[in-house]
Structure formats: structure tokens, C-alpha cells
Design goal:
Helix content is 17%, strand content 27%. It contains five helices and 40 strands. Strand 39 and strand 40 (327-328) form a beta hairpin. The longest helix has 29 residues, at 329-357. The chain starts with a strand and ends in a 6-residue tail after the last helix.
Amino acid sequence: MSYTIAEIAGALEAKAFGALDLVIGGVAEPALAGPGDLAVAMKPEFAEGLGKGRARAAIVWDGADWAALGLEAAIVVPRPRYALSGLTQLMDPGPGIAPGVHPTAVIDGTAQIGPDAAIGPFVVIGAGARIGGRARIASHVSVGAGAVLGDDALLLEGVKIGAGVAVGARFIAQPGAVIGADGFSFVTPEKSAVETARETLGDRGDARAQSWTRIHSLGGVEIGDDVEIGANSTVDRGTIRATRIGRGTKLDNLVHVGHNVEVGEDALLCGQVGIAGSSVIGDRVVLGGQCGVSDNIFVGDDVVAGGATKMFSNVPAGRVVLGSPAMKMEAQMEAAKNIRRLPRLFRDVKALQKAVSKPDGSD
């Protein structure tokens, strides 16, 4: 795939200067760029790298003197990272899934396959499943009975879509994602030590030894349009009602969404986030890597949680939180400073105790 500087600038709605007919076949970091690459030098600190590489053209920051940097052409963007989104989309050839249905695919006779779908090797599609138009399904994917996959969906290698799962349009699932496994839900015949400890905040009481009995998952999973699920992430089906993920939400790799959870629209869940059963996550929530959300709590709209934050109780809308347990970020930062000051505080207290007990300095 190759484009002229003028074509790339047009796709990005950006300004271009210099040799607009220069043909670009790839994108590279400044120091590694060759003559046919577009160097990505979107900040002044990347200018030094241009001198180490062989790029003839670059995408540069607003106000850059591109000619002085030795370039023959430049594309100037006011918001570099947003421009990077469009540039990478333009230059990405996409997965190599051949059109049509591969001869090794196993498709139940009652399944419905939309027009122009591409289905790769060793794919299994169950009874009554419906696959939307222009869907692309890579090798070793399974789609369960009665599942619905919207138009323009992309399922990469090894994705598993469980029975009865309903997925919207333009869905992307990275390799190994599992949507619609049973929820982790078990109960004991009598009150367990876990239940007692939770009620008393620490005392397990006289709960006797018991075996765990499984609660089966009868609900499904419902996913809105324009959702992306990262590699090896899992979304469990609900116990009675469906687990839900709203339109535009993005899950990173290794994210776990438990049974009955509801995630709102345009949320961002970073790597290793875990959300326990029956919690509700609002719209536009951002959870940094390794955040944890306890079961049966509510995280309001527009909450931002820093990495490794642990939420054990409801978080009001719009709050920025950090730490375990979650606190307002400014309070958590102050608490961390105070912890670091503790050794000095202990020394000062010890000195004061000594001065008060022995004011004359005698031993």
C-alpha cells in the first residue's frame, strides 16, 4: 500500500508542504525511517532522530521548520496523537482473511451468513447463529448456537463467542478473547465463612466446612456497537439477566468482566482490570491497569481511576480516584507523602519524649 503526501494529508485533513507527489509506502520512527517511509516526528524532541534516519518526508508538529530539518515534504498536524489514529488506520492493511468461506470451516445448516462475509480456516459456527454482512472471522474461531454478530465485525484468531451472545456492529475481538463463558458463582447450603467474614468485617464465626454448589448462568451477554475486546479478555454471561457492555467501550488485554456486570458507553478498561459480579460501571469511565471493582457496587459516569486502584464501595460520578481502598487522588497523594514522612515523625517524637522525661539532659 502506498500513498502520496497529498493523499495522506487529505485523509488526515491536515496541511502538507513541499513535494506533495512524493510516494510513501510505510511509517517509521524518525531514526529508523528509510527514503520511502513517512517519519513520525510529532514533537520537537523527535527532531534529532530525523538526522539519524533517511526520511524524505515526515509528519511533524505545528510550527516545525520542516525544510531546516532536511525534509523534502512534511505534513503538519495540530493534535499529533489524534492524527496518529488516522494515519495508522490508513496504513494498516488489516488481517489476511480471504473472502468467502474456507473449506475447513464447519457451519451449521441453520446458521445465517451475511453478504460478503469472510470466514477463515477451522471456524465453527453453531445452530441458529447469525453473522452480519462483511464480517471477518479468522482461523479457529467458534461462534455458539443462537449468537448474533453485527455487520463489519472482526473476530481474530481463537476468539470464542458463546451461545446466545448478541454483539453489535463493527465489533473487534483480539486473539483469544472469550465472550459468554459461565459466571463464577457458587453457594454453600448454609452461611459460609466468606459471608460471615463480610458481614462482620473479619470474623468467620462458627461456619462449618462445606462444599461449593454451582449456580448456573442462564443469562447472555449483550454488547453494543463499536466495542473492542482485547486479547485473552473475558466477559461472563449473566446469571439470570444479561451482562451488558455499552456502545463504544474498549477493553484492553486480560480484562475480566464478571457476571451481571453493566458497563456503560465509551468506557476504557485498561489491562488486567477486574470487575466483580453485578457491579455497574457508568459512561466514559476510565479504569487504569490492574484496577479492581468489588461486586455489587456502582462507579458513576466520568470516573477516572489511576492504575491499581481498588474500589470496594460506590464511587460518585466525575471523581478521580487512586489507591487501595480508592480515595480522591489528591487525598491519596497526600497520604502517600505522609507515609514517607513517618520515620522522621517517629524520630522527632522520640526526641520530644526524651526531652520531656529528662529535661536536664541527664542519663
